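User: My advisor asked me to double-check a structure prediction for HprK-related kinase B before group meeting. I don't want to rely on an old file, so could you generate it fresh from this sequence?
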Amino acid sequence: MTLTHVAQLRGRLDLTRAEAAEPLDLRVGEVTLRIYCESGELEDELADYFRAARGAISQPDITIFVVEGQSLDPAPDWQAWAREPGKSGRKDAIHDLVDGRLVHKVRTGVTFVQSPDLMVAFGPVTANPNQVVNFVNTQVLSLCLRNGWDICHAAAVTDGTRSLAVAGLSGGGKSTSILRMMDLEGTAFVTNDRLLCRATESGAEGLGIPKHPRINPGTILGNARMAGLLSETRRAELMAMPADELWDLEEKYDLIIPQIYGPNRIRYAAPLTDFWVLNWSRGADRVTMIQDVDLASRPDLLGAIMKSPGPFFQRSDGQFQQDDAQPDPEGYLRALRHVRVQEVTGRVDFDALAHLGRDLFDG
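Assistant: Sure, here is a fresh prediction for HprK-related kinase B from the sequence you gave:
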């Protein structure tokens, strides 16, 4: 049978055990979600991961089903989803329905149903909890996009009055930078890689997503708080690597914010006041500096901030995002028009950046 509608798909999936499970309710700013997870083991893992977002809700904006071990036979006619520039290998494949979309993770076999009426993660989900976490977060992002927010490729912290977002090219140091700001007293983690922004009458608001940072070894080695994330053997191996090789190493570790920084250090919704774009270099001779910029005249910096919503995004008119679609610069300029944007130049120096951050939050 060729899949053309979500109703046909629902007939081929057994959601019975998921529907009977105790729901997991989440609140992220103004967005509420309810997750029905078939696997008790996975539900416990998700409940722990999303602990800072858990809260009682009445009627959720988003309902997600997570079912283990099911597949579609025969498989749909999958179409490859083009990756962003600089990324290689196949990651996602899609199959569009009249009223929805299937998204398939090529490497793991996990598949997702995306539609206004049905959202499901199925396949080997228990073995790939991070992909379920990402699916949950795509729903937050998609709903907010439909409500007029824009997605920034940025990390952020806040003290409740001021919030600092940090963007830069992939591997530019934004995660390390923002975690150094977490060492400042009174700051709270907002987000590590996706920041939603929206203009208000006199300023802007930011919203993070409930995803803990996934960081590389260089970030860990530069912060004593994170020493426990590496074994002594692996630490010694990494310390012996050349600095350039260590900087480029992709070896992800989960950093669970409460475990490293203590309780009550996460705040997803915050006023957005300041935005730094990292345009520094490891080989530069000049000291680290920040300077005000006008994003309208710096498309290179704006490009580092803008982020495509990816294959899961379905617009209000029912149309899905295509892999060749580009973000709208004008939307970002409107969203950030009341935010102080600064460019960070000179040499890469996280100690200097931490001092600048302290000055910012001290006013």
